[in-house]
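Course assignment 3, question 2. Fill in each field.
Student: A.L.
Task: Predict the tertiary structure for the chain below.
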Amino acid sequence: MKKKRICIFGCGFWANYQIPGWLELEGVEIPAVFNRTKTKAEAIAKKFKIPRFYDNAEELLAKEEFEVADIITDVDTHLQYTKMAAKHGKDVVCQKPMAPNYADAKKIVQVCRTNNVKLFVNENFRWQAPIRAVKKVLVSGLIGEVFKVRVSFCSGFPVFDNQPFLAELEQFILTDIGSHILDICRFLAGDVKMLYCKTNRINPKIKGEDVANVFMEMKNGIHCYAEMSYASILEKEAFPQTLVLIEGSHGSIRLDVNFKLSVTTRQGTKTETVKPVKYKWIDPAYAVVHSSIVDAQRDILNGLRGGVAETSGDDNFKTVQLVWASYQSAATGKVIDMDKF
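Answer field:
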């Protein structure tokens, strides 16, 4: 099978994980990388033995023979580089969140459609091994007809110490972790009919919200509750894990701290631990996040080759809509009808 040649746009933090994620897959070649700071591009190219590096994106697009642009730049530049790549006929893989605002996300989808190129979003949380295990039990029908889902990401982790720029964001937790958590809600419970959101700011040193709670009624009737917090001081610190509770007519599924998956029916409870794959290049403390990049990119590679990938641009845009509908609900105090958003 002919290799897919993927050029990397952006050599910051996440390039250190997305590049080796691609290299874990058969049939992928990375001929070149780009970064506005040439020393960063050179360092990444050297680290992963990539032949060429550029500090000019247009020069890379003009000189290199490749099919896919993987855009891992700052979110504010996603639209800019998507336009460049799409106009050169390159399929686009975009880091989450797709864009810094709703309008730009819509433009990204439209630009790729207009230029007849494929668009995928590197949304990896739904590909975490414990989340996939939850889905497997769910579709088995073991717990019967589902009526309630809760997805939780609540932590006291000092995220602002490691990433101080997050404290300056006017809109924080819903765009940051909410992009992941609301996508998991869709993955597990289906598309959303309506939602209601409340936000709060507990940390006085930040500009945006660090707490958000979203209640959703799904089109299939399931009630879904997403809770997010970076202000929670809990008995068990779960960061960076996502916890889940699903209730059905015949039982329940609970994904708890340290990847403990429990399935309860009237016959009792069965428990297992679903651990992520620990590749050599991951940070062990973030194994559940970093290892899922490989699975997300394997699915995207299938889409690039003509198959169906879960996190297409059109699909991820539905998650983008949930993020910005949540902000609208929080600002207005109103329930948002997603068919009219």
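Instructor remarks: The domain at 126-285+311-337 is CATH 3.30.360.10 (Dihydrodipicolinate Reductase; domain 2). The mean pLDDT is 97.
Grade: pending
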